[in-house]
Write a structure and sequence with these properties.
The protein is an alpha/beta fold. The chain is built from 7 helices and 10 strands. Among the domains are: about 1-70, no CATH class; about 175-215, no CATH class. Helix 5 (about 85-95) runs antiparallel to helix 7 (about 185-195). This is Formyl transferase N-terminal domain-containing protein.
């Protein structure tokens, strides 16, 4: 059967990630929506049977979720670890040996729905946010292909409830505002520098005794 797809992105994702161009290459309709009301109106007209979210930078309102028989999200960590933002940073800074991508059902609460599928990737001792981001991009593609394949054939499983416990949500900010804390031990500082390395974005910074701010990008210099 013919599957109709519409790709939706907010203005902040339309350019840097070339979402419009990618949708065009596959022959998908593309809509740029700026408000929740526009999103709801677009999906009300489209009447989707499945809503799939990948790195959508906003909370999807309950009114939108109620329009869809099923809604799933692809999150770049092994939930329930590292809910929220900057997952590459937190996987490295917390010293994880493995991370990955999770497909889960969407709830109004961020990253809390039942887990449908996970794809793992190792985190090496010299991993940076940049190198891990590339690994997770591949894991995201693998996870998406598997889950959508299920949706189009056997159907999606109910999924497994996420474990309960102390799994914090990470907001869109870095510890210590992106500055190295002199009180950290050497291992923690080294992980912080690697976790902050994501060109062209500003990396780890430190303040010298004369008040000068220095960006640290060469680990061997420490």
């Amino acid at each position: 059967d013919l599957v109709e797809v519409i790709v939706i992105a907010p203005p902040e994702q339309e350019g840097p990630y070339l979402v419009r161009d990618a949708a065009s290459r596959f022959g998908f309709d593309f809509r740029c929506v700026s408000t929740d009301a526009e999103l709801e109106s677009t999906l009300r007209d489209f009447r989707p049977s499945l809503l799939a979210s990948i790195l959508y930078p906003r909370r999807v309102p309950q009114a939108v979720l109620d329009l869809c028989p099923d809604a799933i999200n692809f999150h770049p960590s092994l939930l329930p670890r590292h809910r929220g933002s900057h997952t590459q940073f937190w996987s490295i800074f917390d010293g994880d040996s493995v991370t990955g991508v999770t497909c889960h059902r969407m709830l109004l609460k961020f990253d809390a729905g039942a887990t449908i599928h996970q794809v793992e990737r190792p985190v090496t001792e010299d991993e940076t946010a940049l190198s891990l981001n590339k690994k997770l991009a591949g894991a995201m593609e693998e996870c998406f292909a598997f889950v959508i394949g299920l949706a189009l054939t056997a159907g999606l499983p109910a999924g497994e409830p996420q474990p309960t416990g102390d799994f914090p949500y990470h907001p869109r900010r870095f510890p210590n505002q992106g500055f190295i804390d002199p009180a950290w031990d050497d291992c923690k500082i080294e992980r912080f520098i690697r976790a902050m390395y994501m060109p062209p974005y500003v990396g780890a910074q430190c303040r010298l005794v004369n008040g000068t701010t220095l960006q640290v990008v060469i680990l061997d210099a420490l």
